Amino acid sequence: MTSIHGALKTHFGFDRFRSQQQEDAVKAIVKGDQDVFVCMPTGAGKSLCYQLPALLASGITLVISPLIALIQDQVEQLRSRNIPACSINSKLPPRERGLILADLQCESPRLKLLYVTPEMLSSASFQPCLSGLSSRGLVSYLAVDEAHCVSQWGHDFRPDYLKLGELRGLLSGVPCLALTATAPARVREDICRALRLRSPLSFSTPVFRSNLHYDIIYRELVPDQYGHLHTFIVKALGGSSGCGIIYCRTRHSCEEVAHQLTLLGVLAKPYHAGLKAADRTDAQNDWMQGKVPVIVATISFGMGVDKANVRFVVHWNLAKSLASYYQESGRAGRDGLPSLCRVYYSVQDQNQIRFLIQKEVARTQEKRGSEKEHDKVAMVDFEAMVAFCEQEGCRHATISKYFGDQKPNCAGACDFCRDPKAVRAQLEAANRLSTTTGPAQSKEPRGPFGFDAELYAGGRKGYGFERKYHAHCISLLADADCPILEARSQRIPKLTVKAREHCFSLLESALKSHQGGAADTASSDVQSLALDIEHEIFRASKSANLYKAAVNYCLSPGFRLDCGNGAGRDC
Ligand SMILES: Nc1ncnc2c1ncn2[C@@H]1O[C@H](COP(=O)(O)OP(=O)(O)OP(=O)(O)O)[C@@H](O)[C@H]1O
């Protein structure tokens, strides 16, 4: 096995493997007589598990990865080490594509790693290339990155991942390696079945990371939210050269939080799809280089970002599942040093996300014409996230249990284990607040007006109805039926919440039809984007008429309503 260590040093510059697991996985893959399943936390060095064997094999390793952006990062990193890697994707200029295909047709191609998305893999245009490689016995390994995408129980299900099972038929005899950072037992079973792994050797590291401290703060109980966040950041960075990530759900929140922190003296930059590509790259580079310590981003930020000294990850809005949260918060402390992971929990936020999930499930069922067992998955996963925030108990233990691991020795690495009384007191205060303000008791009032009438508030009659409706909404701390941001605001006279909801639906439908084929777009992201766009129009409009005009403008055929025009949040 000296050649393995030699290659580790020569190609990657590493003196040793990062862990015994990493070494064992690489050796098993190089041996090549069994399929392999690797489950290691973010930053554990999973990519090396297939990249190193790829260099020691005579053929090409085919790597399946879900996002073009992720692929591009990997390919760039490999090329910077002079490792022949490339990707065939829809964004590739024809000339470059031609050069790659020419190399792949050679008797002994130069290329060692070929990255594709599952969509590209199953596309007709890629089939001749694939069967050419397969028939000449040139595929050494099949590596499936982010393998949890194959499972409908996983937090990022991608239907095209299911087609990978068929590919195994075509590539019979080629060892398969499935990699993921997050796989509860049910997801693991799905991965093995869907990828047709034959008695795979499994290399799993427990999810517990003792250097991460988890805590929850109820946002609605904090009088000065930005001041609270600022104090936390100052403590987390502690004068070090470290940095942090704040995740927000919408573009507007990214802007607002970054602005407020900068006012308070912590330099922070927003990062979201509404920014021009150059501004986004600048924000990321400034953060990577340590010029700006805090990046305030939507969840698309971080995939493939490999930064060791992230001292904190804050979720200003809830993650959509506990698995997503584990992955996102896990970007902290990759260097193994103590780091903080905090959720600013908000009941209003929770209701809004629940609304989006319910709506998405209903839409899927309507389209399909039936209900299925796994329709519940998104909601179950979200409830696990909510329980993580609302429970009395060790946060690490909750995460470990979720992933099927033993209870870890937290040793004070979460708020509950450090001070259970304080956690209890916070929960009690939150309960008191929700019983005084209370969730929705009555049914949504139904008015006699159609959409247009309501948009203009239906004259005096309509305004009356509107006032009642507003009074109803204002009385609620959080209302699962009011997904609209600032639903309680009466800033624009005669603009009803119902009308705003209708506009939101129109924007959402328009986004769906524009982005229907986009591989990287989840429906819940489209919904969030629609909410964000609606909210921006609301904030920018001075009257109901101007609001309506702005919505109509966005819906007009000449206007391309998508992430690229800077209209909203990431897709
Ligand atoms: N043996 C090693 N010694 C030192 N550094 C290593 C070793 N193996 C991997 N690394 C480095 O660790 C970092 C994280 O690796 P990698 O991106 O593969 O993690 P990952 O497990 O795939 O994380 P993610 O789940 O975020 O994709 C990279 O910078 C990589 O170069």
Any overview of this molecule?
This protein has 571 residues and is of the alpha/beta class. Helices cover 47% and strands 11% of the residues. The strands form two sheets. A seven-stranded parallel sheet has the order 3-4-2-5-6-1-7. The structure holds adenosine-5'-triphosphate (ATP). Adenosine-5'-triphosphate binds next to α3. Adenosine-5'-triphosphate is lined by residues 14, 17-18, 40, 42-48, 181, 306. It is found in: Nucleus, Nucleoplasm. Residues 27-201 form the Helicase ATP-binding domain. Belongs to the helicase family. RecQ subfamily.
What tags apply to this protein structure?
11% strand; globular; alpha/beta; seven-stranded parallel sheet; binds adenosine-5'-triphosphate; 571 residues; disordered C terminus; 47% helix
Please report the distance between the alpha carbons of the first and last residues.
Answer: 44 Å
Overall outline: globular
- The pLDDT mean sits at 82
Put simply, the count of helices is 23
Number of strands: 13
Describe the strand arrangement of the main beta sheet, using strand numbers.
Answer: 3-4-2-5-6-1-7
Class from helix and strand fractions = alpha/beta
Hetero groups? adenosine-5'-triphosphate
Radius of gyration: 25 Å
- Percent of residues in helices comes to 40-55%
Query: Low-confidence segments, ≥5 residues, pLDDT <50?
Result: 438-480, 517-521, 563-571
**DSSP strand content:** 5-15%
Biggest β-sheet strands, sense, barrel: 7 strands, parallel
Cofactor: Zn(2+)
Main location: nucleus
Domain Helicase C-terminal: 228-378
Family: Belongs to the helicase family. RecQ subfamily.
